[in-house]
Known about the structure:
- This protein is α+β, with helices and mostly antiparallel strands.
- It is built from nine helices and nine strands.
- Strands 1, 2, 3, 4, 5, 6, 7, 8 and 9 form a nine-stranded antiparallel beta sheet that branches.
- The protein is elongated and about 65 Å long.
Amino acid sequence: MDPIKKALWCIESRFAAPLSLDEIAEVSGVSRFHLVRAFGVATGRSVMRYVRERRLTEAARQLANGAPDILSVALDWGYGSHEAFTRAFREQFGLTPEELRARRDLSSLTLVEPLPMNAISSSPLGEPRLVTGKPLLIAGFGGHFSVENTAGIPLLWQKIAPHFGHIPGQVGHVAYGASHNCDDQGAFDYIAGAEVSSFSELPAEFERLRVPEQLYAVFEHRGHITAIKQSFEAIWRDWLPKSGREPAMGPTLERMDERFDAATGNGVVEIWLALKD
């Protein structure tokens, strides 16, 4: 069973009790970092957000059935106060627990039901080559994203396109997308740009990223760029657990050379996954 299915089993069998990311990762047989990245690309949610949404969904069912004591419901689902529960409940459903209990109707709520484990399937992916990547300086445009919302990433590529080939200090004509600063909530920074020889001449609006020398597994995504999510899923959910390798916490790179056609979005994109030595 892959680590995502193990994680879902752990969550669905235990989310009514106290449950931490460390515990879920241990049951899944992978590191916290690995689990957060794999779960995010497979489900579009962070691990602990899914736990929270499932708990609040079950709390909503209790309230719609007329639970007499809202604080007891809050405590049952891991909230230490009425205020904290109300804040989280309103954020997820757009109304307060009191309003739902009075209404006793779930039809207007978007409930988060268990993710079906049998719907998570594997995607074929060729074996990678192992490469020790040289240190890189990457300059471009960046932003902060989450596994739930990556819609702004294509805009970064639109923004950098007119500058490509004219970035001060640019080295070669290879484009790089880099995901870095990943956290336990599934948030990360992303930069779209190119290698440069120095940061000294860059305009202020450019983001800068230093990538150290690093061992990588280099995969080839072939086809349209919009399907790259499936390649990432296969890497994190299938290849890594079977390989016996562990991911490092360095940046994950998308490398686009002359084999990729930026105008059509078709071609070869290399995915460079940082590994522990």
